[in-house]
Amino acid sequence: MKMEQERGISITSTVLTFNYEDHHINILDTPGHQDFSEDTYRTLAAADNVVMLVDAAKGLEPQTRKLFEVCQMRELPTLTFINKMDRPAMNPFELCDEIEQQFDLETVPAVWPIGDGENFKGVLKRSERVVYLFEKNQKGKTATAKKVPMDDPELLSIIGQNLYDQLFEDVEILDEMGHSLDTEKLLKGDQTVVYFGSAMTNFGVQIFLDDFLELGRAPAERSSSIGTIDPGRDEFSGFVFKLQANMDPRHRDRLAFIRIVSGRYERGMKVLHSRLGARQINLNQAQKLFADDRESVQVAFPGDIVVCSVVL
């Protein structure tokens, strides 16, 4: 949107879709500005998992606190990505403590940063005891990552004595005093797994995505006027969580964002709208959005988001 470009903020929710390691992932990119928080609250109704993005220099911001209350109310599993470690950042222990104190949420760092800003050397993946070294490239380019075992003597010469000593001291504290991963707590929203990296250079993102596929919750059941609907149900069902009108001058229409709960969407199918007295409507023009671009959808499944131009 032109207004988003002018103000440098997200105003409307966008659905981003991509494939990764034989999985189909839908991202609901929600507005981060407080003036448009209602759109975010509605969008969270369609989410199965939450990724809490934290600026390493700023820590938790007021809007993050407000939105996370809704996530906790819905018991959404939350993974945390602490971003911009290649810039001056708060102490990682302080960042984790802030999350625990503000949200009464246990933090379990899956990776641990080595330095920050100009001295950011990479992250340690704790489960592997392997350091992923950060090598900054040109702006906008993906950073390269060389892997070095934590006990490899080469690591000392690469990151220097101070960071080397700090890393081993931090890891000892985490191992002895930190929380252990509890998947039951994670899925109930009582614990969050924490990652550090730099999204602009794509550093740490692959580690995060790999763990997300393993830890994240699959499309979940939803409550309805006829009871709980399981995603394994054969009959098609879905719900509208957002309406958007005339947000793009090239597409003067009214869009309904639909989260598929069960069954299989097929292009041209007709469904019953329960709120309008079981009136039949045609979902012939279902699309997926990416910024201002639209792509027709032929089939979709539970967990997918489709956008339809319909009269509701």
TrEMBL record:
One of its GO terms (cellular component) is cytosol. InterPro entries: EF-G-like_DII (IPR053905), P-loop_NTPase (IPR027417), PrfC (IPR004548), Small_GTP-bd (IPR005225), T_Tr_GTP-bd_dom (IPR000795), Transl_B-barrel_sf (IPR009000). Residues 1-220 form the Tr-type G domain. Pfam families: EF-G_D2, GTP_EFTU. Keywords: GTP-binding, Nucleotide-binding. SUPFAM superfamilies: P-loop containing nucleoside triphosphate hydrolases, Translation proteins. One of its GO terms (molecular function) is GTP binding. It comes from the Eukaryota. Belongs to the TRAFAC class translation factor GTPase superfamily. Classic translation factor GTPase family. PrfC subfamily. This is Tr-type G domain-containing protein.
